[in-house]
Design brief:
By secondary structure, the protein is mostly helical. It has five helices and no strands. It has helices at about 1-10, 25-40, 45-65, 70-80, 85-100. Helix 1 runs antiparallel to helix 5 (about 85-100) and helix 2 (about 25-40) runs antiparallel to helix 3 (about 45-65). The radius of gyration is 14 Å and the shape is globular. Keywords: Membrane, Transmembrane, Transmembrane helix.
């Protein structure tokens, strides 16, 4: 399951359309993760949802408060833990899961 999480982040599954996600999409993702955790309460799903909530969710909240895409891009470049390089993103996901 760690490999699956790495592949999701390496392919920028959540980050690819980050500028187009609004609050409704964010709520939709949260509801999906809650349903998954309730229906299939396993350690792997809990790890994925924690990685999502701890690392990707704060960026959505910050992006929703920024005024335009250029501000979002400035924030992206200034953010240390949000990486678009595939290898580094996979390593970061692995470290996050090991630290949980």
């Amino acid at each position: 399951m760690k490999l699956y999480l790495q592949m999701m982040i390496q392919k920028n599954f959540f980050l690819k359309n980050i500028f187009y996600l609004n609050q409704y999409c964010l709520k939709f993702y949260l509801i999906i993760f809650i349903i998954i955790n309730l229906c299939f309460y396993t350690v792997n799903f809990v790890i994925i949802s924690r990685c999502f909530l701890l690392n990707i969710l704060p960026n959505f909240v910050i992006f929703s408060k920024l005024k335009n895409e250029s501000d979002s891009l400035k924030y992206l470049y200034q953010t240390k833990y949000l990486m678009f390089d595939q290898y580094n993103a996979g390593k970061k996901a692995e470290n996050i899961c090991e630290n949980l």
